[in-house]
Amino acid sequence: VVAIPYLADKSVAFGKESTTSSSAKAAKGADAKLDRALEKLVAMEGGPPGVIAIVQRGEHLSVHRFGVANVKSGRPMRIDDHMRIASAAKAFSGAVALSLVSQGKLSLDDTIGERLPELPKAWRKVTLRQLLNHTSGIPDFSLDPGFQKALFASLTQAPPPEELLSFVEDEPLSFEPGSEYRYSNSDNIIVALMVEEATGKTYEQQLRELVYKPLGLKKTSLPRGTDLREPFIHGYDPSEQPPEDVSELVAAGWAWASGGIVSTPADLNTFIRAYVGGRLFDSKTRAQQRRVIEGGSSEPPGPGNNSAGLALFRYETKCGTVWGHTGNTPGYTQFMAASGDGRRSVTVSVNSQHTPEPPVGEPAVFEALRRAEELAVCAALA
Question: What is the pLDDT of residues 54-67, one digit of tens each?
């Protein structure tokens, strides 16, 4: 893959730097290091066809891109291209739930038994807080063999959201709720169902009312099917040669609130700045969100030392601390984060799936991606 540089300092930069000359020089140096890491990433064997990163310091926004959004046409990535955001969608379910907590329509102490008594009896004592910080003990439906069999039998048509939980409804809890941390896709499905019960509206309606509309996210949605709206960043399986286009292989409904959202790099940047910066709920709720479980890692792990809050992760890097979320799904790997006040932010999006261990992607590529994410954080905080 030929790397196509899109150097933000020379080509795209919006706003003004409110910095001294020395700090501006440091920021330029950090941007240059990020560019070298991103260019190296797409040139690696097994690396993604393309990468796009947004770095925003105050009002100054820069875009860094290498490689391509479409292998066949050679079209570069753009900040308004649609893409699957994978588990970064969990932060959106957190935004909706915590907004309702702030309004008094939900409580972090509400239990599944109180809100959704039709769900398995063993789950009844699990609280909204435990769902949001992945200490529920409810097994991950996406790891169940029955789910995987059903998925491959019907890739393009997903069942209703509540049926996703049926694959683990007869399984025992993995541990006593609140006693351990274990990332589970089941948790955010239940969060969204709690939202629906508390409001009498669909989860999609609440996303529009509480997140998209207030933040002006005009290119973000939660579809059910496989189609992506043009223009979009094509997602690939780099283990195939040439890379196989898997952009529209799987219906978004198979992940729903845990990973089905489609957005753009620009919308993700806007969202994470507001979500971390406190625009969507009050300071009391935000303080609860940031009570972390040390060592609780996002999936895939983000840069630095990871700790889990409520639908949010703390990433302690060599350059400072940011808050955000990661995600991956066939064709895409995502990272978004912001400083505690939301003033400095970063998103990094690649169009192939990468994890720390096989069978998905090369571990060396994932480590290169993770290093690039940390350099993006350094650039944002410079």
Answer: 999 999 999 999 99
N-to-C CA span, the chain: 30
pLDDT in tens, 252-268: 999 999 999 999 999 99
* Regions of the chain with pLDDT less than 50: 1-11, 16-19
- The model's pTM is 0.94
For residue 17, give the DSSP letter.
-
- Name the nearest CA neighbour of 376 among 343, 346, 350, 351: 346
What is the H or E stretch that residue 24 is in?
helix 21-43
CB contact burial 128-162 (16+ within 10 A = b; e otherwise): bbbbbbbbbbbbbbbebeebeebbeeeeeebbebb
Instruction: Tabulate helix, strand, coil % of the chain (nearest 5).
Output: 40, 20, 45
- H or E stretch at 205: helix 203-207
The candidate with the shortest Cα–Cα distance to 109, out of 282, 312, 310, is: 310
